[in-house]
Amino acid sequence: MIDICKEFEQWLQAEKGFALATVIRTWRSAPRPEGAAMAINEEGTMIGSVSGGCVEGAVIKEALQVISSKSPKRLSFGVTDEDAWSVGLSCGGQIDIWLEYVDSKNTIWQEWLKSVNSNQGCLMVTALNPSNDKALLVEGQLLGNLSDNLLEASKTAYLQHKTQIFEDHFLNVFPARSRMIIIGAAHVSLDLLNLAHLYHFETIVIDPRGIFTKGERFGQQPHQMFEDWPAEILPDLKLDADTYVVVLTHDPKIDDQALQIVLNEPVAYVGALGSKKTHQKRKSRLLEAGLREEQIDRIHGPIGVAINARQPAEIALSIMAQIIQTKNQYL
Fold this sequence. Notes:
alpha/beta, Rossmann fold, 3 domains, 5-stranded antiparallel beta sheet, 10 helices, 33% helix
């Protein structure tokens, strides 16, 4: 649903109600994951997708009724039969969709937008019954009312980043944006920043070499940029399972300093630029510096998926692909 957040906010500000369709359960090879959403206004205009095109037409028809009645409903779609005009999923999967009326005066949506826009992780709880009651959990703070069991389940779901149904309630997790920390502001970094922003990462660039941090070089500015050594900045940053570290300076004095810090933290990903030969030399230096073999083995080196990348933009693409691959393997 984050992918339609900007348009969703604009529709709310217009102070006209609309319908929201959310995938709440999937089976087999469903085209969109749980939490995928589509909003529909009274003119039938839609933003987002719940199936990539298979059932959107049918959902829009139901949505117009929901806008009129303001009553939610649950929809189910499965495999199409041999009739080419029947509504269903050609992929062999099955999805359940919760279709609800969004009242622009309902403050829970404003609070949700505030959390998303300020990059605060949150979880929306929706009762899958005619009441359509909602509650919002924002970094441990509850807005609304939940039973003790439901509150504990919500906290666990948020920690596990696992959108799910629990006791006839839909727990929709919206984690804070993942952070990409880029060590070194060379050419690859510029292209990588463009991709990182496209995929909603918070970006931080660290490079003590002032010539590389000049703002006019950047088409896409990072959220934060530091003209300092990694050891001066990294200890003060959040280095957790939502953090992805990319080491790109090709200067052992800078790269090794960063690696010695992040490899002692539970970051999700560490990648370092360089050939296989360069990486073997890097491993030897890090072993001499006191890091253990299993720590060093966490480094993706050479960095990126193997696509025979040559140009900076291609290398950036291979790095981004590897980061997304790592990120999604836990979802």
